[in-house]
Design a protein that fits this description.
The longest helix is centred in the middle third of the chain and has 28 residues. The termini are far apart. The protein has one domain. It is built from 18 helices and no strands. Helices cover about 65% and strands about 0% of the residues. Helix 7 packs antiparallel against helix 10. By secondary structure, it is mainly alpha-helical. Keywords: Membrane, Signal, Transmembrane, Transmembrane helix.
Length: about 350
């Protein structure tokens, strides 16, 4: 008797998520939920303000406790990043293919922003009118010219250094705190000075690992300076400015809108804490894909409230987010994003100011 039972070939095994993938997903979702409030609005762009400097507000229990918590979260964030793969979100890996064109795209973000500031009467930021800057209209023309040059993509190291020269007029007009608030502009300028686009098609550039590490380090450092400064100058030490903003735009307090008993003072502290967290996460460079996805939530929520001014003012920051996301999504460059120079790196940089160039 012939056995008519047939043996079925085993089908393809279903891939189940690994523990690391599940941990990464959980971390992403948790971070997105924790920062869903619109904390990225720049109060000085939309509300009356004075000099601030009310450190008594910051040194009260809640701000101090949340600041300590944010510092602890940042340390844990970087430690967790060491145990996760790079890139941490493999689904975003295709974004890494545009890494050679990032300097060109970042220059366009900066150029459009500077040109728009000159057209709308601002200098480096919507909150600093051209009329208050030494040189007035001439400073606006210089700013616009640098913006146009950056958009062209031709020999961008020169206009990138020109952006740095815009700092002294801003310093004279608004003081050191305002200059630190616009450090994200300096961050982009330094990145482009270290790693400008090439003269090849679409500015394609393949930098040496050393040059890319330094470019990303300066980018992260000064963007972090801007975000951390804003957390203090517009929220932690300037609660009156934040109150004026909430009075003009009560919809910013999402907690109150959905019926949660969160006072304006508590919301101000939460908003400042989230902005401080963004600054520290950018500085750490760890898990850049998750960090950018998290940061984009509050930065985009405020667009529905403030519109064009918010878009123009945040263009350099959007360019920075794109930079960190793309380099963090490329297997060959992801390790450069969280890099910090050691003493030997500083000594080598000082001995060889011009290291290997682009290919």
């Amino acid at each position: 008797m012939v056995d008519d039972l047939t043996t079925r070939a085993p089908g393809p095994r279903r891939r189940t998520p690994s523990a690391r993938q599940l941990a990464t997903l959980a971390l992403t979702v948790t971070a997105l939920l924790a920062t869903a409030g619109p904390a990225a609005a720049h109060g000085k762009w939309f509300a009356e303000h004075d000099g601030g400097g009310d450190w008594g507000f910051f040194f009260s229990p809640l701000p101090l406790a949340l600041t300590a918590a944010v510092i602890a979260v940042t340390v844990v964030w970087r430690l967790v990043a060491r145990r996760l793969p790079r890139p941490e979100l493999a689904v975003l890996s295709p974004l890494g293919r545009i890494a050679p064109y990032i300097p060109r795209l970042l220059a366009i973000h900066m150029g459009v922003s500077l040109l728009a500031f000159s057209v709308t009467g601002g200098f480096l930021t919507p909150s600093l009118p051209l009329d208050d800057v030494p040189g007035g209209d001439f400073a606006g023309v210089v700013q616009a010219a640098i913006g146009v040059w950056l958009i062209t993509g031709i020999r961008l190291r020169i206009p990138a250094l020109g952006v740095v020269l815009l700092g002294p007029p801003a310093l004279l007009a608004a003081g050191p705190v305002a200059l630190l608030e616009t450090a994200d502009t300096l961050a982009v300028a330094l990145f482009l000075a270290v790693l400008p686009p090439s003269d090849g098609a679409f500015g394609r550039v393949t930098p040496s690992p050393e040059k890319l590490r330094w470019a990303l380090f300066w980018l992260r450092l000064f963007v972090a300076v801007a975000l951390i400064t804003l957390a203090f100058s517009e929220k932690f030490t300037n609660p009156e400015l934040a109150r004026n903003l909430l009075e003009n735009y009560p919809e910013l307090n999402l907690f109150a809108l959905i019926g949660l008993p969160v006072t304006d003072e508590v919301f101000i502290v939460i908003a400042g804490t989230i902005e401080l967290l963004f600054g520290l996460l950018v500085l750490s460079g760890a898990l850049p894909q998750i960090a950018v996805l998290v940061a984009l939530v509050p930065f985009n929520l405020t667009l529905f409230i403030f519109g064009t001014t918010e878009v123009i003012g945040h263009l350099p920051v959007y360019g920075v987010f794109l930079t960190l996301l793309v380099y963090g999504s490329n297997k060959e460059t992801a390790s450069a994003v969280p890099w910090f120079p050691r003493a030997a790196d500083w000594r080598a940089a000082l001995r060889r100011p011009s290291t290997t160039g682009e290919r």
